[in-house]
Amino acid sequence: MTRYKQTAMIVLAAAMAVGTTIVPAAASRKKISSVNLSVTSDMRIGDDMDPAQIEIEEDSEKYYVESCDITNTGFYWTEEDVPRIEVYLTAEEGYYFSLKSSDVHLDGATYVEAVKPSGMDSTQLKITMDLPSMAGRMDEIETVTLEKNGMATWNAVQGAGQYEVRLIRNSTTVGGTQTVQSTTVDFGYLMTKAANYTVKVRPVSRVNWEVKGKWASTGGLYIDSMAAAQFRSDNPDGGEWVHDENGWWFRNEDGSNTAEDWQKIDGKWYYFNEQGYMLENSWVKTGEVYYYVGADGSMLRGAYVPDTEYYVDSTGAWVQE
Q1: In Å, what is the CA distance from 195 to each residue of 33, 43, 224, 290, 306?
Q2: Nearest to residue 249, comparing CAs of 226, 233, 267, 272?
Q3: 255-303, pLDDT tens digit by residue?
Q4: What string of DSSP letters covers 16-75?
Q5: Pairing with 69, which of 3, 34, 54, 145 sits 20 to 30 Å away (CA)?
């Protein structure tokens, strides 16, 4: 296995495609007709662009890795970068390179081209390759905690745009998988039964949401019957109100939410639009009956609609005279 130290960038004026057969300098030399390299790296977003973080393993005694250069511009890796490197191979004494592009096999990298470096003979070969995108190289979440008050917290990961979070009750996920942009979630509304609870969370790339990191988990936290009863008291309907830039919505105990329908919460009726947000100061027609929801979103009953002469009865229905 070969590990590299920083090398100076070499400006190559010209190169000859490997597809052209290279004639050996002496008949006694043996040709190298294929190259196999395995490439690994531990680069992370925010790291210096340092070839020392790249390891290349060759599986032949006919050649060895002379050096490795990074061709990307900049000083630090960002999530938009696709690392491109140039790997210089040198044939062992008595050998020379004579191969085509299809004879270069890479593990852990994508082939770009292979050429003879300018001014060099057939004992030298430069292979250009791309490493996996930095968008998929997020750090792992190091710490996840679940407090007795139901609050889950974890450390932020550079390059992550959001996080997927799960609450596990004994061995079953409750509330589904939540996607959040913060590094905290209040799970108290789901911890309403005496059980052992754990939280699992993983980062999702800011650049490509299909790229996700590894799951990190808390240790188990046991909630006894008294603590569960307190959570039920704090969340009598087994859910919680959530406010964001679009308004208020209600997250049920199972993680779902109501849309285009009424829902009774703490003894009051609320109407949620097609996006799942609570209506305020609005008329709602259900069937042939009109109802009115006030400033707090709850259905008005047995009263006049503010600033009007319209009256709704004890069921909330508008009394049309």
Answers
A1: 63, 41, 7, 44, 47
A2: 272
A3: 788 899 999 887 889 999 999 999 999 999 998 999 999 988 999 999 9
A4: EETTSPPPPSSTT-EEE--EEEEEEE---TTSB--GGGEEEEE--SSEEEEEEEE---SS
A5: 34
Rounded Cα distance, 97 and 91, in Å: 7
Which among 213, 280, 294, 285 is positioned nearest to 249, based on CA atoms? 280
pTM above 0.90, yes or no: no
Contact at 8 Å (CB) between 301 and 278?
no
Are 289 and 300 in contact by the 8 Å Cβ rule? The answer is no
Looking at residue 172, the DSSP 8-state letter turns out to be: E
Domain identity same for 47 and 122: yes
Are both 55 and 90 inside the same structural domain?
Answer: yes
Residue 199 near residue 165, CB atoms below 8 Å: yes
* C-alpha to C-alpha distance for 116 and 22, rounded to whole angstroms: 9
Residue 82 tokens, joined: 């696709």
Other beta carbons within 10 angstroms of residue 212's beta carbon come to 17
Domain, as residue range, for 175? 144-232
Residue in this structure with the two tokens 């000083």, named with its chain if needed: 75
Say yes or no to pLDDT of 154 above 60. Answer: yes
Q: How far is CA 164 from CA 69, 154, 176, 208, in A?
A: 36, 12, 10, 14
pLDDT digits (tens, 9 = 90+) for 170-220: 999 987 888 888 899 999 888 988 999 999 999 988 877 888 889 999 999
Q: What would the two tokens of residue 272 be?
A: 């949620």
Final residue of a structural domain among 180, 204, 232? 232
Q: Return d(Cα 86, Cα 269) in angstroms, integer.
A: 66
Q: How many residues does the chain have?
A: 321
Q: What's the number of CA atoms in the CB half-sphere (13 Å) around residue 244?
A: 11
